[in-house]
Amino acid sequence: MGNIIVLAILGAVFYYIFKSYARYTAYSQEAFKNFSVSYESIKQSDLGLFVALVAKVAKADGKVDSLEAELVGIMFDDISSVFPEPEKTKDILKRIFSEEKNRLDDLEEIAHRLGSAIKRDRAKQQQFMGFLIQLAFVDGEVSENEDRVLQTIAEAFEFDPNAYHAIFDQFEQMIKNVHPKENIEDAYKLLGVDANDDMATIKKAYRKLVRQYHPDIIKAQGKDDAYMQEATAKTQEINQAYELIKEKRK
């Protein structure tokens, strides 16, 4: 009976997502072509507010680990690409992240501001919330502090609790189904490198693959929830293979 209820909830969530995406307004170069790039304008924009929340989730467990840092850096590239003056925008996004990662006193304020800005667009809420949950899971588990930050953001967004828990549970199950590579040869194969390659070559291959398969907040627009899960699972596999190789070479 419990499984039937869960399936019914998931079915309702996916139908809701599908309907929401039909009226989704994309973040694109066309949408931002007349945007005046400055620290204040970026910081007050939807994507600037989102980066501030990303910073708080990434640092909620006390550290930004190497994979999180890699993904956040790629996210700066993804987001800045839709703005005029991408390099200037990227520097501003880095500044926002750096300023906000060690602050929780303004968490509710920023979450409410972004929630208000996207209140009429449930698909954007879904996209942002899903990405934040995905980020919390990217190191393999969600700490109590990360969970608390996510819950605070979800409440500020007035995000449907059933939808939130459905997404959270999906990522939790997905992480359990990602099995670390036990064989070093398989790890090399996954990264497309050779056992004789030096660590600089292996790291370059690792970063290239992470960039290729990372969950992209911009490209996720219009795609269903499976996109983020598949991207996260692949990123996990790549990272675990890389960590195994590093461990074996100590």
From TrEMBL:
Pfam families: DnaJ, TerB. SMART domains: DnaJ. It comes from the Bacteria. InterPro entries: DjlA_DnaK_co-chaperone (IPR050817), DjlA_N (IPR007791), DnaJ_domain (IPR001623), J_dom_sf (IPR036869), TerB-like (IPR029024). Residues 186-250 form the J domain. This is DnaJ domain-containing protein. It comes from Sulfurimonas lithotrophica.
